[in-house]
Design goal:
Layout (H helix, E strand, L loop, with lengths): L1 H17 L3 E6 L7 E3 L2 E3 L1 H13 L2 E6 L3 H10 L4 E7 L2 H4 L3 E2 L4 E10 L8 H6 L2 H25 L13 H16 L10 H34 L13 E5 L4 H7 L3 E5 L2 H9 L6 E4 H7 L8 E17 L5 H14 L2 H10 L4
Parallel strand pairs: 1-4, 1-5, 8-9
Antiparallel strand pairs: 2-3, 5-11, 6-11, 7-10, 7-11
């Protein structure tokens, strides 16, 4: 009797092994968290899934897709049982798919090309721009011309204020022009002759307009330089065309800040567009972007601004998936025993 019972147990075990649950796992190139090279997936998401698979006692079959959108569509249609992603858990994505508990907390980040850290010389660089220098040169030339004319008019009858000999006399006339332009007059000099006084009156009136023109042009130059300058953070995304990965949460984050997202299937395509000047920046999940710009070929890219649009990311499941509860229980166990934190440290370089 005991032998029969043992045989039944062995048969049952063998039957269970032969009929082990098998799930179809969608994968695609997401970034550092999930990469597919020569048909073989790797990355933090794969390491996480392999741990979960062992805890759940199931077998799997990887199905490679060309893009995040294609993988999400397949999961939504039930063509695969889950998509590792990880994918941001948002209201829009939950309308299409079911999700596991969050496996990572992250946010968005911005990468721009060729930006040096700001220094105290930044405002000086703007003041010394070509437009400002051109305006200053015009004002200087006009002042020198007026100074010479005034000296010619006054040098014979007003030698005390405007000495007869050049260049001293011309310099005194130019100094009068500078003082009148900036302060409206010159206390230590007076103009006696009629031609000189007519010129002085004209210069005072014209000077008011010239100073106003210079001030307005300078303000416009400073404003235009700021508006057209490099993106420094999330607030600068308004009106800018930036690259994002299709299917991710970055596009919505950019639109929420009045930016214009241009979507690409992969981050490599997004960076290629930035290299070609099609977009002004690349916006993606923080960990992914940090590792993407760590490549030697992207040494001229830098992260700017803080992490923004805080979000949780998880594993996408087919709607109504029976795996969800078991997967959530395994994820909670991994949180409690520190397995997820260890994966983040090992694959993503810790939290930032």
């Amino acid at each position: 009797m005991a032998a029969v019972g043992l045989a039944v147990a062995i048969l049952a075990a063998g039957s269970g092994a032969a009929g082990a649950e098998r799930v179809r796992v969608g994968v695609t190139n997401v970034g550092v968290t999930l990469q597919v090279i020569d048909g073989t997936p790797s990355g933090a998401s794969i390491a996480l899934w392999e741990d979960l698979r062992g805890r759940l006692g199931i077998e799997d079959e990887y199905v490679v897709f060309p893009s995040i959108n294609a993988a999400m569509d397949a999961a939504a249609a039930g063509a695969v049982d889950l998509f590792l992603g990880p994918i941001a858990i948002t209201r829009e994505s939950e309308a299409r798919l079911d999700f596991s508990h969050a496996v990572l907390h992250s946010g968005m980040r911005i990468a721009v090309r060729g930006v040096e850290p700001e220094s105290w010389l930044g405002p000086l660089d703007i003041l010394l721009s070509a437009e400002v220098l051109r305006l200053l040169a015009i004002l200087t030339a006009l002042t020198v011309i007026v100074g010479h004319l005034l000296w010619l008019f006054e040098r014979r009858g007003n030698e005390r204020s405007f000495p007869r000999h050049w260049p001293r006399g011309a310099w005194e006339g130019t100094w009068w022009g500078i003082s009148t332009l900036l302060t409206g007059g010159c206390d230590d000099k007076h103009v006696d002759g009629l031609p000189g006084r007519v010129l002085a009156l004209v210069w005072m009136i014209v000077g008011i307009g010239l100073v106003a023109l210079f001030t307005g042009s300078l303000a416009a130059t400073l404003t235009a330089e700021r508006i057209s300058g490099t993106i420094h953070g999330p607030r600068d995304l308004a009106g800018r065309v930036v690259a994002t990965q299709a299917g991710g949460a970055a596009s919505a984050a950019v639109r929420a800040r009045a930016g214009v997202p241009k979507e690409f299937n992969t981050l490599d395509e997004a960076f290629a567009a930035a290299d070609d000047g099609e977009v002004e920046a690349v916006v993606a999940e923080n960990f992914t972007l940090r590792h993407a710009i760590a490549r030697p070929s992207r040494a001229d890219y830098r992260l700017v601004g803080p992490v923004f649009e805080s979000l949780d990311v998880g594993i996408a499941l087919a709607p109504g998936s029976p795996l969800r509860e078991r997967l959530n229980a395994a994820i909670l166990t991994m949180r409690e025993d520190g397995a997820i934190e260890s994966l983040v440290d090992r694959w993503l370089g810790g939290r930032e």
